[in-house]
Amino acid sequence: MSPRRSSTSSSSSSSSSDDERDHHQKYRRMINCNPGPAAQPREILEQAHRELFDYQNTGISVMEMSHRSAEFENIIKTAEQLLREIVNIPDNYRVLFMHGGGTAQFSAIPLNLCNKFKEQLVNYACTGVWSEKAAKEAEKYCIVHRVLPPKKLDGTLETIPDYSDWNINPEGTYLYYTDNETLTGLEYPIQIQAPISNPKMIVAVDMTSNFLTRKFDVSNYGVVIAAAQKNIGIAGVGVVIVREDLLGSPMPICPLTMDYTLWNKNKSLYNTPSCYPIYMCMLYLQWIKKKGGLEEMERRARKRSELIYSIIDQSNGFFYNPIDPKCRSRINITFRIGGGSKGDDALEKLFIDECKNRNIIGVKGHRLVGGIRISMFNAMRVKDAEIIADLMRKFLKKHGQ
Predict the structure, then answer these.
(1) Catalytic residue at 206?
(2) What's the CATH fold of domain 70-288?
(3) Deepest of 22, 168, 380, 387, by most Cβ within 10 A of its Cβ?
(4) Out of 179, 206, 259, 384, which one is annotated catalytic?
(5) Which stretches make up the Aminotransferase class V domain (predicted)?
(6) 140, 179, 230, 245: which is the annotated catalytic residue?
(7) Between the CA of residue 356 and those of 353, 360, 363, what are the distances in Å?
(8) Tens digit of pLDDT for each residue in 311-365?
């Protein structure tokens, strides 16, 4: 009996090329603008496809691999090492791979950063639906102080007030914000530093939807959270980067699966982790490194968004974007068609249908705001954004006169 052939063997390069050609011919790929789970780079899907039945000559899939095995230990270690290298994470920060995605972290952050139930005050900068959800969850455990006025999803111009206008309570244990609001397409133009009013205040940030799309200084934060399914993998795992001095004193009511200290002590292996999503994270991080790291991801994000916003800005209001230009998201671009802030439902439905005819999916806006949303995460090629821009240009010419 001939031995199994490793999917990573150099001797199989010609066969792998044949497999890839067959894969391209067999599977039709859409331009995926879904807001999450999001598109995956084709190269990653092809590698996962090759390794699905037999991961590196083990004779089993990662899906059925013991999380205590040497093979999986290597996967999770490699994922962490790649993330540390790509982001330049300081040695005094810990990387955790946790269950529950980003929403679980809405609870985990107050449960780990505060140790007195319903006694400690925390600051929340609510700029949209996701930061507001996080604030409401934190209210179960803390006294939440909102530093910004309430948001209205009414199509009027949205912006982020200057930092000097934020009403931050200096007694707060931490300040929390969401770096990119996917629903409306609002993104912080710069990273926030620790509050001047209290240099010791912890800053916690949800970077789920723009994680690894630009450089950032980890040392500005106490905690960085990011669910994997938008920019670094598939649904099922959340990445947490936490400063080590913040470990050790969670609330007594903190569940085991949300305890940063316990997770760090057990190297994210306290119980069975989300093995396959962590494997996909590893592949995605390898891909980011191969393509040029955060500098290249940032260049692509900027180029993709410029292609779409240029059409919007030259449409004389036919495509209406409700976001202050300085706060426009590079990742999630929202707009109404043909009717200002309210849009024209018939034209928007026609646009969605024409997108489908061009193999572009996932462009319908969130049910709370309607309209159109073009989500362009790390996996989207600039070429795909050019195709979308071309469709918009032709749609404008046909219906915008």
Answers:
(1) yes
(2) Aspartate Aminotransferase; domain 2 (3.40.640)
(3) 380
(4) 206
(5) 33-386
(6) 230
(7) 5, 5, 9
(8) 999 999 999 999 999 999 999 999 999 978 899 999 999 999 999 999 999 999 9
